[in-house]
Amino acid sequence: MKKIADLAALTGPLAVVVTLAGWLVAGFLPVPIGPGDQQEVARFFLDDPTRVRAGFLIGSVGVVLMIPQLALISLHLRRMEPTGFPLLAVVQAIAATTTVLINMFPHLIFALAGFRGDRDPSEVVLLCDLAWLLLFCGITPFIVQNVAVGVAILRDPASLMPRWVAYLNFFIAFSFLPDPLAYFFKSGPFAWNGLFVFWLALTTYCVFLLVMSWACRQANKSLEGAAS
Fold this sequence. Notes:
Layout: H1 2-9, H2 11-26, H3 38-46, H4 49-64, H5 67-80, H6 87-113, H7 121-137, H8 140-155, H9 163-175, H10 195-220
């Protein structure tokens, strides 16, 4: 059991690596396109649609690789609630499922925008807007997930994970709050490619997956005596 749990804990960091690699291939990184210039948005998808499709399909694979780690987090939260109904574990599982879908489907929409090289530029812009704003503005499930994890860790009598991991989860939840402002700005730090939307959310979510990978491996140590 511990060996499988340790492997599951590594899927979060793996998801980060594969997803970011896909974004690099697509041209999403190192400098993401902004919403202000519609012609630039259309050119991004139409000038080299094969590259765009390949990159975002790699990214769509990357985001689902985190599923085993997210499931492991819920299992450890269940162990933190040894008696009664494991509400926080269930909340985390539902929120995590939703976050995976929110992460995955925009990648497929991005790839769809590059599916036809002769697509009308206005249609490309619409698909890009849809994907970007879904990916970075659908933050409520992410916040619920982080809060559930944080509360469970603070309530855990066995201290399976350090308390600082709980406070980090609360900070990460707080860091997502500026994201909906991307609906109101086409340039600056609150645009979809801005400091307080793209870069802050991307950084803290990667930190979440990396730190929770470590925290899960620490919690896995108590599984040493379990059957493999």
